[in-house]
What we know:
By secondary structure, this protein is an alpha+beta fold.
Amino acid sequence: MNYGYFDEQRKEYVITNPATPAPWANYLGDPNYGAIISNNAGGYSFVKSGANGRILRYRFNDCDDPGRYIYIRDCADGDFWSASWQPVGKPLSEYKSECRHGTAYTTISAEYRGIASEALYYVPQGKTYEVWKLKVTNTTEENKKLGIFGYAEFTTDNNYSQDQVNLQYTQFITRTYYRDNRIDMTINERCREEYNGSKRANRFFGMAGADVVSYCGDKENFLGLYNGYGKPQALQDGKCNNVLNYNANPCGALHTEIELAPGETREILFALGQKEPEEAIEILDSYKDVKTATDNELAQLINYWHGKLANFQIDTPDANFNAMINTWNAFQCFTTFVWSRAASFSYCGERNGYGFRDTVQDIQGILHLDPEMAKKQIRLMLSGQVHNGAGLPLVTYDHNPGHEATPEEPEEYAKRIDHNTYRADDALWLFPTVKKYIAESGDIDFLDEVIPFANKDEGTVYEHLKRAISFSMNHMAAHGMPAGLSADWNDCIKMGAQGESTFVSFQLYWAMKIMRTFCEHKNDELYIKYLDTEAEKLYNNIHANCWDEDRFIRGIRDNGIKVGAKADPEANMWLNPQSWSVISGVATKEQAEAALESTWRELNTPYGAKLLSPSYNNHPFDGSVMILFNGGTKENGAIFSQSQGWLIFAEALMGHGNRAFEYFKETSPSYMNDKAEIRKIEPYAHGQFTESTESPFAGRSHVHWLTGTASTVMVGCVEGILGMRPDLNGLEINPSVPSDWKEFGIERTFRGKKLHIKVENPNGSQGGAREVWLNGEKLEGIYIPANAMLDENDVKVIM
Ligand code: GLC
């Protein structure tokens, strides 16, 4: 069953049935002002941080309320409804609804009793407030008098948990005022700026394009007790009581009345933000002409986002694939890039910074679209590297390079961050990310840029990378593989501080190979020698200890017992070691084929491949923390979506286009569009995991939007399936696609040059390019040197 469709022309997802199986969200804004909105207008807003800048309330894990509500009331008989289906929830037989989620804007249209409405929500480009614009049209034959009510439920404190739990304090620090068409709301208004850790703040909710007839600044007074958001007292009464808040829950509610002749349209605007009154006045003044101002701002937003996406657009025979790569997976990559794991309907905003591994991975998802934007974040993450080479587990929003405490000073460090030990993998993610950045941009000089370490010292990027390798080399364990320390990618596996993870070993091996290419560029012979010797040892150690017949094991605990051995009663087959053995280049051809075959045989389900199988149940060990989860869930054997990206990539590297694409289809949100009742979450956004066939709800996905899945699947598709493989000097094109694709096209920007790529597949190959032509000339091999590219290039690839 579906609830909507992809409108690729407009790069929108259109929800035609508002009774979706979960709130289907969209993101508005930028790092300075964020807003999440569902297809029923539920959601919240925050300045910079979901944890410490929360402006609008949202009840997590409940009924998708409150939200950015606009109510419409027919003054003739008092019937009222909302511009989004919820919260009033008129019968869908009488109420028509369509929600269009676009790139950083959402429109929700409705038609009820001959009144058509369209609520447009966005954060203007570069601004730190939000706009809700309502367009209402009278499609009936008679004159209509309508009451329009906007409702915003403010938090009482910028800190999310204070607002929720510290009621003996936060209920008594706010007031609301009515001034010139707006409600102003203050927090700690008597203190100057900051007092005892509390901060003074002002928010506003204002109206433009019409005159306020009545208002309310007190939540309970607007809603009335026991009415809920669906039947506010003010709507029942036809007006607000002009009551303001003093010692209770604040809100902004503004009411106006309009008369519409048959066929007539009116536009009214609400704006909301955390601003001093003078600025609020200026903002509202800028919308004197509501239509022109909002049309311009919307066009600006669309140009900005579509401009970014235009750097990589594909046209393949598969519409679902196109929709993900061209629009939705790409937009999700930007979203995770900006908000990491901080603010969604699952993440309440408590994580106040960038998880090291998550963010370094997230960067990879936008590299082919905006390498400059990626570079800034790479810099930040490099400055989150401790001078010993390890990554700080969390780089906080107020990160102060050169002055951060480290896990070596547990008292200092733990004051701010709850993870107070190093992970074995964090800094190793830098290698593919830095390499992809340099390959994509051609900015090889980046290696020489000097960047501070988190706690002290500074060094070039090249030096940072060397130290990352040293960190692993200084923590080698019994079998000559890197010690597990606190964890690897899998938060739920603890092999012991001296345990060894094959995943990290593959990462280190790959890191050394990448580093070698940088060393070659620098003619750093000594270090090349060192890397070659160490890489060979590591390779041999992995082969001696980790191959088990037709699979790689997951690791070796500090007591010497193997995890993920074929004979284990549970968890005897793990996904990541198989895909990573291929990605890292450690697996021989035979091993790679066997490992991927075992993966298909033992882990695959209709919804993707499981993270491990069978899940832990009767045979956990001390460090198998995932036993806490039900079988087939999260790290305990779910289809952990991030890992699907690596699997797609590994299959594609092996030239298995059919299987790579099969895995894409199984886990792609878009492919579940017609089974939305099974998947539940948005058919246009990846989630963290999908319940496996062990669950009675197999196929149900969770933890929408903010997940590393966005970037790994993107890389798996762009570099893997589509075969765009840049290196320091140019671009290799080597697709692995379904054998029934006869041809496809890619329009992309590469180092500022335009490439119009046409791929032909006359013989139904599933992997490997045979010929590459550049501007009419056949090249040697399948590699386009960057210096052979003109400003505009026609590229023909024959598979
Ligand atoms: C979550 C975490 C990520 C971790 C993964 C696997 O996605 O954000 O850091 O690698 O789970 O445990």
